[in-house]
Amino acid sequence: MNGSKVFVDTNVLVYNRDAAESLKQQKASAWLDYLWRSGTGRISFQVLEEFYGAVTTKLKKRLPIAEARSEVEDLLAWVPLPVDQEVIKEAWIIQDRHHLSWWDSLIVAAARLLGCGYLLSEDLRHGQDFQGVRVVNPFLQSPEDL
Description:
The protein is an alpha/beta fold and 146 residues long. It contains 6 helices and 5 strands, in the order E-H-H-E-H-H-H-H-E-E-E. Strand 4 (129-130) and strand 5 (133-136) form a beta hairpin. It starts with 5 loop residues before the first strand and ends in a 10-residue tail after the last strand.
């Protein structure tokens, strides 16, 4: 992977905490372990907001508030990108060019603006390239396979 930065979509963080999806949980955990060890993980505040909302309200076995907050605080070490004017304008370009949903466009825009080579997500097409940001489905490919 050559130390390329890897943007992590919300679903990967959520599956890491979702015991109802044990296989996906194992794969998400392996990716996150790798990203913490290598220091290559990146996120945006959008991802943190979605993660916190999902693990405290949507999971069958919800995380306790204190645990979810602690995990969000840990992820602040990845220096999340704020959704600002630059991200919004980049997302509009991506939305128009690639016909993605607004929320996916914001994710791709953040990954591009952070200079990430990869975007871990199951929501976008595995292998798709967004002007230098390649989508990797973490449930189809392991970090060692890159």
